[in-house]
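User: Continuing from earlier, I have the next pair ready.

Assistant: Great, send them over.

User: Here they are, in order.

Assistant: Folding the first of the pair now:
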Amino acid sequence: MSAPGPTAGRRRLRAAVLAAALACSALLTGPGPATAHSAPPPPAPPSPSPSVTVPKLDWSPCKPGSPWECATAKVPLDHAAPAGRTIDLAVVRRQATDPARRIGTLFVNPGGPGGPGTVQVPQNYDAFPKELRERFDIVSWDPRGIGSSTAVNCFDTAEDAKAWAARPPGGFPVGAQERKAWIDAYADLGKLCQKRDPDLLRHVSTADTARDLDLLRRSVGDPQLNYLGVSYGTILGATYANLFPGSVRAMVLDSNIAPRAWTAAGPQDDPRTTTLLRMGSDRTAAATLDRFLTLCGSAPAARCAFSAGSPGATREKFDLLMQRLRERPIGPWTYGKTVADTVNSLYIVDPGWTALAGRLQELSQGRVPPPPVYPPPPPVAQPNPYLGDEQAAAVWCADSPNPRDPAAYQGLEEDSVRRAGDAGRYWTWAAEPCATWPARAAAGYDGPWNTPTAHPVLVIGTRYDPSTPYTGAQAMARELADARLLTNDGYGHTALFNNGSSCISAYESRYFVDGTLPPPGTVCRADKVPFS
């Protein structure tokens, strides 16, 4: 899950965090997916209101010679008032490479909130298993409020946005002066956004996007939905499954947010802690960092540049570096920025962990690390859309309860540090922008989560995930009416795209194609242990 606050790699729920979810109806491939366990018959798909117009997708190449096609879907701003204002959704498609064996469309949400599917899915297309690319059109979109769709943008010019982005300290605030700068910056951002387009702010909820997704499904002519959602995309998928239970053919939810952590169990107006701390992001980041340092320290420096020769010595080396950075930054590398970069760099094992070890080693030698090398942009119309902090905040803060008093976050930070060390500071302050966010979702969804679906859902959880803990996948599998848990005994954020497990890929592909679920209790392992 990405956070509104500024970090060096914040969009990493971002560009490489994806996974694949497919489902196929009996009309497309014969038998539907097998049932995980008996459940009451699912309700029929909801009857669409005759006043809701299904968008027409006029596909054309995103760029001359590009294999990706682009289209724009017009949907109601307020699904309860379909005759009112409309907004645009940017959509991309890559057609199945084996048309004769095509099953249908696979919709993919790459996470966030705030992940632009029109960029991230093309960027990661080659990571989809070959059979899925052959047999499904791969479709994604920028959710409402994000990227190239009708977007939340609270600034008049790019220069104004850049000037604001320079105000909050990198990663998280350290000390009273930085805390004030952070809190004031995000309070001002909320005020700017409220003045700009208050109606849009109230209609970018997860439930709004789930209703958009059902319109997109109908636009491509699929009788039921094939869906892959990762990270934030898991709560979107769970919301869809409970709003449109009869429309689920197959759904894979990878790196899960526990539904009750997203919605909170207490009062909406005064939650005691944040979304991310309810999820346990601080604890799982600390466990993943510890695993990184253990594996690095068990390897020679030729394989892990930051290795000090043993796990214990490597942990001591990391702690000493953090202490030094708190006292004196190295160029732009402050303590807060370095912790944020460390947590974000744990998302993707290859090349993320190796590159992180190299940066930490440079810093330990008192040198500024070289700038990162980014992959080339994908061949789409807008490969670099505006993705300001306000876009993630607009979805997250309006949808999921967080403490409304900025002064509460210092105490939450210290509590988290006792549990999770440095990573606790990062994940605590990531939610503070919600304290002063001005809007609440007009049509959110907070349960129930156990409405029986037409076909079972496949839930995937990774043991060492720096953002969404394995317990989130366990909770998702328990709370959905009909779900099977597949465990990835591996590393990083999401199993399929970022952290190679051919075992996971095989089970996912089989589920998407013919509905076969893995046996109960199945555990997959990574193909390669980091630094081995």
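And the other member of the pair:
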Amino acid sequence: MMPQAAKNFPEDTNARSNRPRSGEHGRPALFCLPVGLDWLAVGLTFGAVASAVGIGSVLWPWIGVGNIGLIFLTAIVAVAARFGLWPSLLATVLSSLCYNFFFTAPYYTLAIDEPANVVAIAVFTLVAVIVSNVAARARIQAIAAVERARTTELLYAFSRKLTGTGTLDDVLWATAHQIALMLNVRVVILLPENGSVAVKAGYPPEDRLDEADFAAAQWSWQRDVPAGLGSGVRADAKRLFLPMRTGRGVVGVLGIDSDLADPPGAAERRLLDALVDQSALAIERVHLVEDMERVKLTFETERLRSALLTSISHDLKTPLAAVLGAAGTLRDLGSKLDQDQKVELLATIIDESERLNRFIANLLDMTRLESGAIVPNIARHDLHEIVGSVLRRAGKILQPQRVELDLAGELPMIELDAVLFEQVLFNLLDNASKYAPAGTAIIVRSRLEPDNMVALQVMDEGDGIPHSDLGLIFEKFYRVRKGDRVRAGTGLGLSISRGFVEAMRGTIAVANRSDRRGAVFTIRLPIPPASPRLDEVA
């Protein structure tokens, strides 16, 4: 097995200066105490006791020898609060000796003449030991509280950072980078791949795994136990590898390494375990999102396939059957039919062929939209000219209804693709004709809106759209269920219209009319900045 390198993620150059390097021994308080702290404590303990001697000598004439012990107790408490138990015990011994040497007769000797002084020194020593223990314990508890608060703060910050990530690479990079900075270690993350584990992220990115490290990582992943440095398993590895567990099992392995030979202590290990658990949950969250996307895509694909098959088997079969029936009648009974019957059959063939052509065009347009092949040929056009062109094209399907125009006078030129917009308006008129009763009005209205937009509306006098269908009307293959009088369609026209309008930087919306029954479709397109416009709109 060849050594594996960590994935080369973008690197924080400011943070790199803080990571461990070969030959450096500095570590934060999270891993060890500063190297000269014991000698500093000893020196300051002697200084505190000497200060107590000096203060006691100055105040002796006014406070008496019995109260000088309080000065020494103050020094002992200060040492215990600052440095802990052992320096405070040293301060206790030194204070007892100095109290005897400087302030009890005979002076400047450790000999004691009066039994009362023996009792006084013994009581002083006992009280000093108790006070130093209490103060040292309070110090330990305070330090523990600070560490717990710091750990909680680090975990919260780490959790927030992971929450803001959306992809697996982001999660892995954030995990490696944050753990490396928090614990001042080198980090590598391995994820399952082809029955084994492979390096997916690391900090610093140039770190590599040798054979022993990779074997320890493989062992940790397969057996769900820590392995490597300090674990008792695969101890020849330079890193400690921890399994990243979730409720679904092991999702990966995290390895840490530092320049010090000792593994992390108990406090550092608890923090590390918490960070690993959070990282594992973040990785699982990404996997769940990916699984949901795959399921959603599969479901959508199956739904579209089913709808497409239904459309082909029913909606396309209907006009084909009409064409075949009319053509067969002309072939078999042509000599027995009069001229009017022949003209009617030929009209049926033409109408149903045009209908079939529209169905196929809609399917092709939706395929182009789904593949991103629609690139609008944007140019400035007169909206009213396009309306007139579409009305001439849709004249046959609009014969059962009457069309009323309510167009604003001299609208500004609009940037759009004339071919695509004609298809959009044709689809809206075709949809209105399907759902509006014969003899009713289909209104095409244009207006200039105050937010620098032009609106074009198509209104009918049908039954309107059920409230539950308003949010679904533009979905692919979705059709509002109506009676048998409604002509069949593929359910693609409105979806295609929305795609075309959005490609031209516009919007399309649907609502029920407020003045009467019926539906209203509204297309809104932006006015180009330099487009000429009238001060008043008729």
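Worth noting for the second one:
The CA atoms of residues 105 and 114 lie 8 Å apart. Residues 266-315 form the longest helix (50 residues).
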